[in-house]
Amino acid sequence: MSAARGRRRRGAPEEEHVNHERWLVSYSDMITVLMALFIVLFAISQVDQEKYIALSRSLAAGFGDGRPEVSSTVLDGGSGVLDGLTPQEKDATAGGTAGLVDADKGLGEQGRTPAPQPSVDPALVAAAREEAVHLEQIREAIRAGLAPDGLDRVVTFRIDERGLVLGLVADDVFFAPASAELTDTARRVLDVAGPTLVGLAEQIAVEGHANVLPVSGRYATNWELSADRATQVLRHLVERDGLPPGRVSAVGYGDARPVAAGMDDASLAANRRVDLVVLSDAPERVRELIPTVAPS
Fold this sequence. Notes:
five-stranded mixed β-sheet, 48% helix, CATH 3.30.1330.60
């Protein structure tokens, strides 16, 4: 009996022992994952210093300020790589989006800074002033000759980039409607201004104008009328006042260059005129500055 019980005991499988070290597998897996995580974090925290400096300088230049501290405030996230902190000024009054707006006040101030104006060569300005003074002297000489007879009130003067412009315009004082015949007043004005114009070295342009009213009689259009008015003034200056013909020219503009808008009597009369232009012989860059330095 005991022998049979011994045989059964020897043929029965042995019981397995409990493995108390299985937790090491899970632990090693966790350590592996943590190591991979910290390797990734370490890798993304590395900054290429050269690229960082180049980017910060380009941003600083884009914001209009060459100071390196401007770019550092834009790019620096915080004292650590992943601390999630946003740098703010000590006097910041709000956090979140409002704090970011307060931190960017300097950018708004830069946007309000007026753009620098291009500098003008002082030599050009001085030359323009000198030319403006010369044109003013011509104007005053002609005006002084017209003043005793009150003719200075029927002539307009202005100085622009072309030179000195004498406007022969005053209702029917110089030209009757649809006529190119000079009135007695027109002849007297030209005879007074003639000696001053003759003594100049500049070219003289005579520009004829007409209003928009249709013409009749000997002129087909206002172009012929305005050109004839300019020609009559030119002939008087050359034939009566001795202006050298090589220094004067005439052109007709018809009604294409009015000085007054409207169809009232005053506007129509103002556009029925002839302009005498003393053409400045200064360089173009100097003439462009004359209106800015000449008295209004």
